[in-house]
Prior knowledge:
Blueprint: H1 3-11, H2 26-35, E1 41-52, E2 55-63, E3 74-75, E4 78-80, H3 88-100, E5 108-112, E6 116-117, E7 122-131, E8 143-150, H4 151-155, E9 161-167, E10 170-176, H5 186-200
Parallel strand pairs: 1-7
Antiparallel strand pairs: 1-2, 1-4, 2-3, 2-8, 5-7, 6-7, 9-10
Helix pairs in contact: 1-5
Amino acid sequence: MKIEQVLAQVARVDSKALGESGDMTFQERREYHAALGRTVRPAGVLILLIQRGDALSIVLTQRTAHLHDHAGQISFPGGRFEPEDTDIVATALRESFEEIGTESRQIQVIGSLPNYVTVTAYEITPVVATSPPQAFTCDAFEVADAFEVPLAHVLNDANWRRDSFLREGQRREYWAVPYKERYIWGATAGMLRTFREVLLQP
Length: 202
């Protein structure tokens, strides 16, 4: 898929979440947090598309094993909104620079996907952007590795599956899209699933 096709599809996205993840919809998660008196905090992640020849790839990171939250898991570069950020796009760009050293001047933001509410009470805005190939410099404390997954892998339904685990005696389902030795699941897979459905919608 060409960058121009991605741009055209993302530009048509409305506020409807197309790819639900887990056993709750995004709206049900908002209601769940509200019932528990939790404040849902804004965050931004960068879905950065790299053009390599005729193909596109998506930049992902693997978190370090010692972190308190989501240790060792696969994620997009990004993080929570800070008061000094002018908007959520600035959040995604700042966090990406801090985590993997991306150069904002090389990045072209082309749009965003519907927000994703996590079980940890963050409302994430996935910011979609493009860039020529960059050299990544990982923050040693937060990021163990930065790597790319071909967009074609994400678009192929054969690579997706529904996995589950037990929590408090209940079975919880979630999306997973493994790539080589990487197990991509949870919120990251949920947002990738939404991205896939945006790109493949009529």
